[in-house]
Design a protein that fits this description.
By secondary structure, this protein is an alpha/beta fold. 31% of the residues lie in helices and 23% in strands.
Amino acid sequence: MNIKKTVLYILLSLFPLTLLSQEETVLRLKNHIEVLTSDSLMGRMAGTPGEKAASIYIQKELSKLGIESMFGDEGEIFSFLSTFGDTISSQNVAGIIEGYDPKLRDELIVVGAHYDHLGFNKLEINGREVTQIFRGANDNASGTAVMLEVARELVKVSFDLRRSVIFIAFGASETSLTGSWYFLESGESFKDRIKLMINIDQVGTSEGEYHPIAYIYPSINQLTDIVKNVSAKPVMILPEIRGNDTFSSDHINFVSQGIPVIMFTTALRKKLPYDKEENEKLDLEGMASLTHYIAELVHTAANMDIIVSDTSAKQKESVEKHEKSEGERVYTLYDVDKKPSFLNGGEEQFLNRWIYDYIKYPKAAIENGIQGKVIVEFVIEKDGSVTSVKVVKSAGDLLDAEAVKVISASPKWKPGMKGGEAVRVKMAVPVEFKLRK
């Protein structure tokens, strides 16, 4: 039964990350910011109903994307004493996309942004009481909005993330960076598993042309190379790379734990709040470009064998053990100079010209209403043959077996190249079986 005539289609989610149009991303960013800066949230001060309402909105947005909540609907709740001696309760909101690689999925990349701000003041002007709301459009509704849209883009390629990725909105950041500190120091600590932290703070405005800055901690070539390599890809922005700085934001808590950090901002320093921070003054087009850039950067880092070797001895040891157990090294698509190609194309060509034409929907699966997405991993050998075909995400034995059968019978590819020589390369494709209604 030919797929073109029946009930099977292939879900394609391929890079570079330009799956969502700039216009659609701009509209969603605008909506997030309008919600987070609305009068009803009253400036989102830590411990207030406005901050709680913002956390609920963020949790719902992550849930809509199908991202698993790490702390339930209430978030990661914590309490602390204010400078006035009051007990304040706040919460972090976090979701996780699990990586598929059994050897790297326990390692984490954290994409974070704080969502709280400084609340409001009551003023008397000409004998009339006026409420002055510090809306925090740039600080940091902008970073929260970008974080949510980065999550949206990475969900589309979740099948192709070797490491797991956490998306977290920190509460109570304006009160001594408390939310991020609690996340790292709470009983269920993740800090020993975090290989990279991406912080997004005040990314909505810049003087003149939109000009994001990437602060790198520690200032080493490995992190700098990741940023530059992503910038070299088509339609990507070029952030200005800077070394360690004293910009006060949540990444500071990660830096203190020795965790590598890339911090994105368009501000030269942490700015004081002011009530005329209007939403329409934010550069939404620039923020959309930064969204695509950060998503691509996280995707790249999630698939590297080693992100930062000189601060990740355990990670390096794990990769070396894996290579030894598997024999000759197997590279990822992101480690080679030239990717493998199928009929002069990549994964999309393979899906369209091979899987699309030859895969069949198992009759027993149709009769029993079985459908779902199978993610299949395989290796392109140095001679172009396809080996080591295995299911890394199952949709049931019937569908798994059909996907593996067709991929295993693949004609030869042109092999991947590294340093002018053919090398073994591992890759994965998603195959979705869906019944017509």
